[in-house]
Write a structure and sequence with these properties.
The chain has 10 helices and no strands. By secondary structure, it is mostly helical. The longest helix is centred in the N-terminal third of the chain and has 32 residues. The mean pLDDT is 97. Bound molecules: 4-amino-5-hydroxymethyl-2-methylpyrimidine.
């Protein structure tokens, strides 16, 4: 079994807390207050801006590692997606009357953004960084795909958001990242694998905190 698969099984309860959070469940049953959605939107824009330099640093690590061109291209496609995402956030925010210039980052967001910054350090090798990247993307993919399943009552005005991360193309991209992570982990030392697993679990915790903040406001 692939290494990430063993973690997904081992840390299943935590993974479900991140991917089936009350924020997501309440999108599915249309009970999410729109004020929470707007709060999430503003906070996630700040997160996404901090995500840009992290992915750029990941691309540099992939290149230095001499990883296959195909893998570098997958990360490059992630950068392209993020570029789209930044524009989308601006459009979506103006649609909802959310002013992106005046958002104050909440504690959980600050903690997550400093975690991203710590991943940019040279001490964090390519294997660890790409594993964390996969985990971050996979949580959003799984969470929002969940809101598009048959029988969900997801409101029409939230569907575009859910599709952004929940669509099949994004799913394939996440599986490609998982493949890169698995191949790296396969040839890594036990110590690196252990560190990468800890990062995986940390991402799940940070995602839960981010959703909590979006629901509760702090
Ligand atoms: C908090 N996690 C958070 N925001 C995002 N936009 C993603 C993951 C995926 O891009």
């Amino acid at each position: 079994m692939e290494i990430t698969e063993t973690w997904l099984r081992k840390h299943r309860p935590m993974y479900l807390r991140a991917t089936q959070h009350p924020f997501i469940l309440s999108i599915r049953d249309a009970s999410l207050p729109l004020s929470s959605f707007k709060r999430w939107l503003g906070q996630d824009y700040i997160f996404v801006r901090a995500f840009v330099p992290f992915i750029a640093s990941l691309l540099v690590k992939a290149w230095k590692e001499g990883d296959d061109e195909a893998n570098v291209d997958i990360i490059l496609s992630g950068i392209a997606t993020l570029n789209d995402e930044v524009s989308w956030f601006k459009r979506e925010a103006s649609k909802w009357g959310v002013s992106l210039d005046s958002i104050v980052p909440q504690q959980a967001n600050l903690v997550y953004c400093s975690f991203l910054e710590s991943l940019m350090s040279a001490q964090v090798d390519y294997t660890q960084a790409v594993t964390a990247f996969w985990a971050i993307e996979a949580v959003y993919q799984e969470s929002f795909a969940h809101c598009l399943e048959d029988g969900c009552k997801t409101r029409d005005e939230l569907k575009e958001t859910c599709e952004r991360w929940g669509n099949d193309g994004f799913g394939q991209y996440c599986r490609a990242l998982q493949g890169i992570a698995n191949r790296q982990l396969e040839k890594a030392s036990d110590q690196v694998v252990e560190k990468a697993e800890a990062l995986f679990v940390r991402v799940l915790e940070l995602e839960v905190e981010f959703w909590n903040m979006s629901v509760l406001g702090s």
